[in-house]
Design a protein that fits this description.
2 domains, Na+/H+ antiporter like fold, 561 residues
Length: 561
């Protein structure tokens, strides 16, 4: 027992050491870290003496997947997700179905021992793109924001569709008959509706609780429990745990701007940044390390033939996505402009090609493949199980490495790099609105101070004993914000002067906190009006939280004196 614990500790220590070392290398090489970690894990799998760690599919689905999906959903802008809903659903539902049918046809014709039923299983396994890889790579290589929004939304939703298709394929292979179209649609409707309902219900309960608690430690623990509660709650009623987690994450992320205090928000964000990096790193290293198990389980094929089949199948999966991306973009544009009234330019072939090329697979696909039963209900071995796992591993490796490494030069060659003008414009508009709101508040607060002083002195306002009127505090702050507004175009942040006198300095700190609250309310209102995205809100809110933290530290120092 004791030796088993020590062995587990040593393996975990080595894995974390690999993650830290290779993530550092990825940063020096300016390469998305999932790519380097997968390659490193693959290389390490052939090194004698390296601990053999088998990826447990139950651990992935129950332990690792919920927090990573929740984190990805938390960082997704609801405005952009809703705006791109048609494009996302055509990829998450239409492309998944097209991939399953296409792979079934290819597998039946190309791979020995495969019939169309095993092809459906294989297609369902490789159909879902990976939310982790899509977010980590797409943001890193500088894809246009509109494309990143669609890819992230697709990867959040298509897991549920692919897992339903896998359910369908397994029932075919096990001999339980061909499910009817009506039965399949009813099952899909239940998965989606029940999953959404569980996620929204849990989100509403957590929101009610969070509004009444302001303790960073307690709220950090709650934030860690929420994705597991959403996933397990939905799975317990045989609904989609993936959609439940995504729904809960989107719901709470949008409302976190109001129920998290600045200090709690900074603590929770730091916790999740570290947690997601560790989990992502471990998963991608483990994907690479699975090569030993994947290759050792296959009999009757030479290594050269296996590599040929893997490359051929990976190319087929990539081509299927590319085939779908062009007409899919046209159909999405037609529906969005004709039925939703969205004003959009027709999709360009460049954008459609990039969407088709950015179909990285990851841990969901490998976990789905490894979760296939080893034996059927009649006791017979599951046909071609090891080959399915190997082909899935090849698709993951090729899409992550080949597509991930070629994306930067591709988007530069297509002229799509650095297309973030809309987001920059939104941020500039938000900053101007924040400063104007602060100036309006300071002007009104200064007038109130004058009126109160006049009322206290019988209509004759007098300066304070130290010769400084309290309204000078508001004048100082107003001068600071006015200077910030005029110099905003040059991205110059003006400093502000405080009073050295304790009374005035305390008042200055109080007024500064009030102004920060006004600015925070303003950007939340802009987000709610759809004028800025959730990402712009988070970026500006982080700045306000840091400013408020500095004020709290200054206030604490003042009290100590």
């Amino acid at each position: 027992m004791q030796s088993g614990i020590h062995a587990t500790e040593m393996i975990l220590f080595l894995l974390l050491l690999f993650v830290a070392a290779f993530a550092t290398l990825a940063r020096k090489l300016r390469t998305p870290y999932p790519i380097i970690l997968v390659i490193a894990g693959l290389v390490l799998s052939f090194v004698p003496g390296i601990p053999r760690v088998r990826l447990n599919p139950e651990m992935v689905f129950v332990v690792v997947l919920p927090p990573l999906l929740y984190s990805a959903a938390w960082l997704t802008s609801w405005r952009d997700f809703y705006y791109n809903l048609v494009s996302i659903f055509l990829l998450a539902f239409g492309l998944v179905g097209f991939t399953v049918v296409g792979v079934a046809a290819v597998a039946h014709l190309v791979f020995p021992g495969f019939d169309w039923r095993l092809g459906v299983v294989l297609g369902a396994v490789v159909a879902p793109t990976d939310a982790i890889a899509a977010t980590a790579i797409a943001r890193r290589v500088g894809l246009p924001r509109r494309i990143v929004d669609v890819l992230e939304g697709e990867s959040l939703v298509n897991d549920a569709t692919a897992l339903l298709a896998l359910e369908f394929g397994l029932s075919l292979v096990s001999g339980n008959g061909v499910p009817s179209v009506a039965g399949g649609l009813l099952r899909l409707a239940y998965l989606v509706i029940a999953g959404l309902a569980v996620g929204l219900l849990l989100g509403a309960v957590v929101y009610w609780f969070e509004k009444r608690v302001d303790d960073g430690r307690v709220e950090s623990v709650i934030s860690l429990l929420v994705p597991y509660a959403a996933y397990l709650g939905a799975e317990s009623i045989h609904a989609s745990g993936v959609l439940s987690v995504v729904t809960c994450g989107l719901y709470l992320s949008r409302r976190s701007a109001t129920f998290f205090s600045p200090g709690v928000r900074m603590r929770v964000n730091a916790l999740w940044n570290s947690l997601t990096f560790i989990l992502n790193g471990l998963i991608f290293v483990l994907i690479g390390l699975q090569m030993h198990y994947v290759a050792s389980g296959i009999r009757g094929y030479g290594m050269s033939k296996l590599i040929f089949l893997g490359v051929l199948f990976s190319a087929a999966v990539i081509v299927l996505r590319l085939i779908w991306s062009f007409p899919g973009a046209r159909v999405a544009h037609f529906m969005r402009t004709r039925f939703l009234g969205q004003k959009q330019d027709p999709p360009s072939w460049r954008g459609s090609f990039v969407v088709g090329w950015t179909g990285m697979r990851g841990v969901i696909a490998l976990a789905a493949a490894m979760s296939l039963p080893e034996v059927l209900q009649d006791g017979a071995a599951f046909p071609q199980r090891n080959l399915i796992i190997f082909l899935t591993f090849c698709v993951i490796l090729v899409t992550l490495v080949l597509q991930g490494l070629t994306l930067p030069p591709l988007i530069r060659a297509l002229g799509l790099a650095g297309d973030s003008g809309t987001e920059q414009e939104e941020e500039e508009e938000a900053r101007r609105a924040m400063v104007r709101a602060a100036l309006d508040y300071l002007e009104a607060a200064g007038e109130r101070e004058k009126e109160e002083a006049q009322a206290a002195d019988g209509g004759n306002a007098k300066p304070d004993n130290d010769g400084h009127g309290m309204t000078e505090i508001y004048d100082d702050l107003a001068s600071h914000y006015q200077h910030q507004l005029t110099s905003l175009a040059a991205e110059h942040e003006a400093g502000h002067d405080g009073s050295n006198r304790r009374g005035h300095y305390a008042k200055f700190l109080e007024a500064s906190r009030e102004v920060l609250a006004v600015e925070r309310e303003k950007i939340i209102a802009l987000r709610d009006q759809g004028r800025i995205s959730d990402e712009v809100l988070r970026r500006l809110q982080t700045e306000l939280d840091l400013n408020e933290t500095r004020l709290l530290l200054a206030d604490a120092e003042e009290l100590e004196e």
